[in-house]
Each structure stands twice: as C-alpha cells, then as structure tokens.
Design brief:
- The chain has helices spanning 115-126, 133-158, 206-214, 274-281, 294-300, 320-331, 369-375, 414-422, 427-434, and strands at residues 5-13, 15-26, 31-42, 45-50, 53-58, 60-65, 72-80, 88-94, 97-103, 106-114, 167-169, 173-176, 188-189, 218-222, 225-226, 231-232, 313-319, 338-346, 352-359, 363-367, 386-391, 398-404, 412-413, 439-442.
- The protein is α+β, with helices and mostly antiparallel strands.
- The chain has a domain at 6-171 and 195-209.
- Strands 1, 2, 3, 4, 5, 6, 7, 8, 9, 10 and 13 form an 11-stranded mixed sheet that branches.
- Strand 7 and strand 8 (88-94) form a beta hairpin.
- Helix 1 crosses helix 2 (133-158).
Length: 444
C-alpha cells in the first residue's frame, strides 16, 4: 500500500483571503498564480481578485505548487478552537495543494497533501513539539490509524445506500452525537472536531519528524481492521466506551481502562452508579493523568491550552435563571428557569450519557456527552463526568457542577500518555495500555 494523499478542510467562509508564496499552477485553466488574492462567490462561481484584476474560475479551483518542498500558501483569519473557550483567528501557512470549492453559498478551502506530512503538523498542533519521543511516536500511530479508519468509514457511509443517522428525537428526548460524518467534500477537518491541523504554522522539530518517520505506515489494528483510535486531553482517571459517546457500536479495543499502572480503581467502583460516580468525582484518585507537573503538561498543552489548570477535577456554578437562558441559547430549547438536573444514565467513566433537564416550561432528556457539554457551557463544558450540587429553591436556586476530566475520555488520554512517556514507558506500551487487544502493523 502506498501512503495516501488526503484532503483536509481548513475553513468555509463567504470570503477568503490567501497569499501564494511561490508559483502555483492550475492545469485545468492553464493559469499560473502567485501573490495575494481575495476570493468571493458570484452566482456560485469563484471570483479571484488581485489588485485590479478579476479572475472568474467556476465552482472549483485546484492550485498545485511548482516547487512542493518550498512553496507554501497562507490563509488569513482561520478560526481555531471553534466553540471552545480559547477560540480565536490566526493566519496559517500550509504546503501541498490548495483547493477551493463553491459549496452552499460558502467557499470551502481544502489542503491536499501526503498523509505523513499531515501527521508532522498534527503532532505539532495537537501536542507540544518538545514532547518525549515515545509520546510523539504513540501519537503518530493513533493519529495515522484514526485518519485512515475515518477514510474507510467515510467510504462505507457513502456506499451504504441509506442516510447515516446521528440523532434521535422524540417529544421528551434528544440524543445526538457529533462525528466526522458531518463533513462533505474532504476527509477530515483541521480543528478539534477531528484532529488539530495547522499546516506549517506550528514549527515542528527534528524529534517530531523522527517520530513520524520511525513509525511510518504503522497503525493499530484489531481483527485485521484499522482501529478507530480516539483520544482526549484527560480521561479523569478512567476511560469511556466508544458507544457511550458516538454511535452505539462496541469496539473491543476501546473499553474501560483505569489510568494507572495496575489498571484498577482505588476501591471497587461502578461509575455507572450515581453514588459511586459521586464518590469518585469528588476525590482525586491516583492516575497517570492526575498530575500538576508543568514539564509534563507543557508536552501536551499548547499555549492556548495552558490557560486551563483544573482539568483533572473542576467545578462551575450557575444560577437557575442564568442556566435556563444559557441552555436556550446553546441548543435552542426553552426550558425556562431550571429546577433540576438529573443524571439518567452514566458510562463506565462516570460521564453522563443521558441528562434530564427539568425546567419551569419543559422537561426533557438530552445526550450524548458532547450535547450535554454544549448545553451547559457558553463554549464547551470540560466533560460530562460531573455530579450536581443544588442549593436554594426557585429562582434563587444555584447549581454547582463538580466534574472530572477534559474531553470525551475515549481511547488514549493525552496527559496520561505524557506521564507514561516521562516515566520511561515505550510507545508500544503506551498504546497497548489504552487500546486493549489491539496490535501494531505496518501498512506501507
């Protein structure tokens, strides 16, 4: 198998500005472009403006660098951290092909490049380029495995003959999950919804390149199939099942793992039970990801992530009227003043899968974990592993959410893996700690 070329969706806007640093060719139209451009849509067609010149292209444009090793393009005002507390815009620089598509009154910008070059950027964007070699190698393997598995899954979804379903609605329940099936026209996006990819904007190091090259073509498999190797920032002490977060499918290699050397809880704990979940979340059990070591955390947390300090255990407080307005603005359901938040079902990590929201106007159950996180924060709640402390009554009621972990908790825990790397674990040991029963295989 040859290393594939992939398509990464960078942004979708009504106007796009970019700069070509080098000479780029469009063989379909026989054009050679360089310099700065603004792209707009006119009756569905792409219009490129540069100086006093206006170039009408059509519904798509593919620009290929004449010198792939040195030519690059800069996209201006790319939004990163979409819907997170550190969301911002920045200029980003990329190598490879630049593709522009007219899609539903927006301009979709796609970067085409070889998968191994993509991984060098992902590792530097998802984590610090100063991480340990073993951690970087582990992340290279899971990022590669996840990407190739998503391409396979995307093909399967497109050829299934029926529409992929990721939401279930009724009068009293909303269950929805967010996965890469949302994307049309490219393989993966460039933000946290998939994997952070920021081209050559984040400077890589020789260590990052070494980690990717030393694991080139290496993936995790289970039963001769690519593993869907998910990861999150901090599992909070125990990992979650795939089916409790996304589609109701059981992956044997994505199971509950207690994030410590012995893979056992401090006591017999069933975190699907409310009383056990409360005891677990209100304490700080021993775990690889239970760390305040700045040297380790700097390996995983980029500058914008380092504004978060309380990821292992955290809390947030809301007044009842404030919470009702927040939920209405976030998911469009008017519950009125919130009277109660009742966990109806928890996963094996204590993450809430189904949450009953009791309001003055409406009572309804919502899920899965990301919809719960979306509803209960102006950005995203760190995780759905929380217990509720309620004080007062009526409009004077306050809700304090005491929580654990950062992210969905499925698969590899990035902070836990960083601690393992610092303790001397090899990358194979790190991978097989989080992905039980999986095997390493070199595909190309």
């Amino acid at each position: 198998m040859k290393a594939p070329v992939i398509q990464v969706g960078i942004l979708s806007e009504s106007e796009v500005r970019f700069e070509l640093k080098g000479s780029y060719s469009n063989h379909s139209h026989g054009k050679y472009l360089s310099g700065s451009y603004t792209v707009r849509l006119q009756n569905g067609a792409l219009e490129l403006e540069t100086g006093n010149q206006l170039i009408v292209i059509g519904e798509k444009l593919l620009l290929q660098p004449d010198h792939p090793g040195t030519d690059s393009f800069v996209l201006h005002e790319v939004t990163i951290g979409i819907n997170f507390h550190w969301q911002k815009k920045e200029d980003q620089e990329f190598r490879g092909n630049l593709k522009l598509l007219s899609v539903a009154d927006k301009i979709t910008v796609i970067n085409e490049l070889p998968v191994e070059d993509y991984l060098i950027s992902v590792i530097s964007s998802e984590m610090s380029a100063t991480s340990s070699l073993e951690l970087l190698k582990a992340h290279a393997v899971i990022s590669r495995s996840w990407l190739l598995a998503q391409i396979e899954k995307g093909l399967s979804v497109r050829t299934a003959g029926h529409e992929y379903q990721s939401a279930y609605y009724s009068d009293d329940e909303l269950m929805i999950w967010y996965d890469r099936e949302d994307h049309v026209g490219f393989d993966v996006c460039a933000d946290d919804h998939c994997q952070r990819y920021q081209g050559i904007t984040r400077a890589s190091t020789t260590l990052v390149e070494l980690a990717v090259r030393q694991t080139e073509g290496e993936v995790l498999i289970h039963g001769n199939r690519l593993c869907d190797t998910r990861f999150s920032k901090c599992c909070g002490g125990v990992t979650e099942l795939f089916g409790n977060t996304w589609e109701p499918v059981d992956h044997p290699y994505l199971q509950r793992v207690y994030d410590n050397a012995r893979d056992i809880p401090e006591a017999h704990t069933d975190l699907t039970r409310e009383e056990d979940a409360r005891a677990w979340i209100m304490t700080k059990p021993v775990a690889f990801c239970n760390t305040t070591d700045k040297d380790v955390l700097c390996q995983v947390l980029n500058d914008y992530d380092q504004t978060t300090h309380d990821f292992y255990r955290w809390n947030i407080s809301y007044a009842a009227p404030e919470l009702g307005e927040l939920i209405k603005s976030r998911i469009g359901i008017d519950f009125g003043v919130i009277r109660d938040l009742v966990p109806m079902e928890r996963g094996v990590s204590g993450r809430i899968i189904r949450l009953k929201i009791v309001g003055a106007n409406k009572t309804m159950i919502i899920g899965k974990e990301l919809e719960i996180r979306k509803a209960l924060s102006a950005t995203h709640l760190y995780s759905s592993a929380f217990v509720v402390e309620k004080t007062g009554t009526g409009e004077s009621c306050r809700f304090v959410l005491h929580g654990a972990g950062w992210g969905h908790g499925v698969g590899l825990c990035q902070i836990g893996a960083a601690v393992m790397g610092a303790k001397g674990y090899r990358y194979r040991d790190i991978l097989l700690h989080y992905f039980r029963g999986a095997e390493l295989e070199r595909r190309y």
